[in-house]
Write a structure and sequence with these properties.
Length: 223
């Protein structure tokens, strides 16, 4: 491990204190970087259930497993969004519902609060084949010197193939988005969707938070 100046450490301590404040989201120096937007997007093909394979950590998902999103068309300009998860400690399911609007190819405005306007593209699909993977990106410039990013790798299967993940990671590379902060979502011992077998098991590997065990060491290694 080498020491690349102190800003990595600043970054990590910001991230770690973010976790403690229950406000975790990965901060990066500078403004939101440019990403490559899609030329075309088939919203209908994108609908349905997507499992979260991995994501940059953020508050909503701390301590959650079996995370998935279900998108469905409400009318020709509105999409319903349901994000659901299981609490890893209690086994309790939870969900939030929101709405989305397609503003451009792969550029969606998603809102979870009533009255929140659907005018800003805060959910960018950077790549998808609609059938196996999608890479989604969200970035907010909080000051001219810092931005908060979330990257998600979503998959149609709970346990996708290595090929599928490689395709998704290529899209991150194309956009120069770091894989170091990706934290893999636990998708084991999850209730089966639509099936009847909802045998919930509270015990999974409840080791220390994934964030501390995987993300930070990865980030340090790759810095
Ligand atoms: C969308 O729906 C509105 C009202 O339901 C209708 O007037 C409009 O023509 C529709 N647009 C398209 C592209 O289907
Ligand atoms: C969302 O949660 C509510 C209870 O809070 C539950 O009734 C509903 O079935 C859940 N929906 C999904 C899709 O999990
Ligand atoms: C996803 O949403 C659609 C449309 O509302 C619904 O029919 C389907 O059952 C949902 N799937 C799951 C797994 O919640
Ligand atoms: C539920 O699952 C069991 C065994 O997996 C199966 O025998 C049964 O037919 C299923 N019931 C329904 C309603 O799908």
């Amino acid at each position: 491990m080498n020491h690349h100046g102190s800003h990595l450490w600043l970054l990590i301590s910001m991230v770690v204190s973010g976790v403690c404040l229950g406000n975790a989201q990965v901060p990066f120096p500078g403004k939101c970087p440019e990403v490559k937007l899609l030329d075309a997007f088939d919203a209908e093909a994108y609908m349905g259930v997507w499992y979260e394979y991995a994501a940059y950590p953020f508050a909503f998902e701390i301590g959650k497993k079996c995370i998935y999103a279900n998108y469905s068309i409400i009318d020709n300009s509105t999409i319903s969004v349901v994000n659901a998860a299981i609490n890893r400690f209690t086994g309790q399911p939870s969900n939030v519902t929101g709405k989305a609007k397609v503003l451009g190819p792969g550029q969606l405005a998603v809102a979870f609060f009533p009255g929140q306007p659907l005018t800003k593209a805060n959910y960018l699909v950077l790549g998808t084949d609609y059938e196996s993977y999608a890479v989604v990106y969200s970035c907010t410039s909080v000051t001219p010197w810092a931005n908060l990013k979330i990257v998600w790798i979503l998959t149609r299967q709970r346990e996708p193939s290595a090929e599928t993940i490689a395709k998704a990671k290529n899209i991150l590379d194309d956009n120069e988005l770091s894989q170091a902060f990706l934290s893999q979502t636990v998708q084991k011992k999850c209730p089966q969707l639509e099936g009847n077998g909802t045998e919930l098991s509270a015990e999974d590997d409840l080791d220390v938070d994934d964030f501390v065990t995987t993300v930070v060491p990865n980030a340090i290694e790759k810095a």
